[in-house]
Amino acid sequence: MEEKLFTISQAAEYLRVSLNTLRRWDENGKLVAIKKEGGTHRYYRENDLEIFSSDLMKFASGWIQDGVEFPGTFYCPTSSIFNARLMKMQNTLMQKPGFEKLYSLIVLITGEIGDNSFAHNLGKWPDTAGIFFGYNLEKRIIVLADRGLGILETLRQVRPKLSNHVDAVRVAFTEFVSGRAPEKRGNGLKLVREVIMEWPIYLFYISGDAEVCMKGHNKIFRVTRGQRIVRGCFAKIEF
Amino acid sequence: MKLQLEKFGKTLISRELGSEAFKAFQPTLHKFSKNEELEIDFFGVLTLSPSWADEFLSPLLNQLGDKLILLSSDNLSVIATLRILQEVNTRLFRIKS
Predict the structure, then answer these.
(1) Which of A57, A69, A169, B1 could join A210 via S-S bond, C-beta 3.0 to 4.6 A?
(2) Using 50, 70 and 90 to split pLDDT, how confident is the model at A182?
(3) Residue A123: which region, alpha, beta or left (left: phi > 0; alpha: psi -120 to 50)?
(4) Do A49 and A60 belong together in one domain?
(5) pLDDT under 50: residue ranges of chain B
(6) Yes or no, beta carbons of B54 and A187 under 8 Å apart
(7) How many CB pairs under 8 A join A and B?
(8) How close does chain A come to B45, measured CA to CA in Å?
(9) How many domains does chain A have?
(10) Do A90 and A38 fall within a single domain?
């Protein structure tokens, strides 16, 4: 049976990008189209689109570090869009065998990290507002990223003496302090840490050059200094 | 009075919506008699986050004190959220099984 091919318009709709973006990606080799013999029209295999759109880490890190475009299906420009997509993820996850109870903690962690991005950057987004939110429940991975101020700059508003990303991220995950004081805030990431310590959920989190990696059977919470500096915040949740 | 929390939604995540829910509930609360108790039922809530709950349950605890009663839930996010809110507020909720 002949494989079904998508036209460029169908592929654009599938990935939620413009036709011009697809043409540019074809020309620079990022997503190469198929051209039928002698023809000039671009076609795409469904599997190629699926694989392309499932490379969540690459899209998220490319966007926050270099502003590289990614399929619009992962973009949540507003908190309400994020919440709607989070509910959709929740509905699928709670049907997954083995996750009938655990789903609520995974949604809680995802929701807290995503909501933090919107709450702490409201009216202050340096350029693109909104977050990257992608997930693959088969591979048990969720990726969130934003091009916001990051933890250090946010917390400096209430802790001016904070001088580096590592200390700022440690404070964010361990102390009841808010970047929006005097509003009473700042419990979300503490609970994220506690839940991850207790349950089979894993977190890789970066802000600036500070990294948190809570993985494996003997998880510990430790903030280390990484090799790269990440704009805003980046989180990978695995379960 | 018993409040079914799911009337505010089954997925209670953002601070913004928690704050809105608290404001929306105030007119009902003003009709309360002095000694009336408020029971919060989590049945039907799929996920409760500490951000949402901190905007709704924490101020209710301040307003009502011991007259606020939470019905126990086996939802993991509810259990985890109530635990951290008690720590933040340095005050225990009355939880009824």
Answers:
(1) A169
(2) low
(3) left
(4) no
(5) none
(6) yes
(7) 88
(8) 10
(9) 2
(10) no
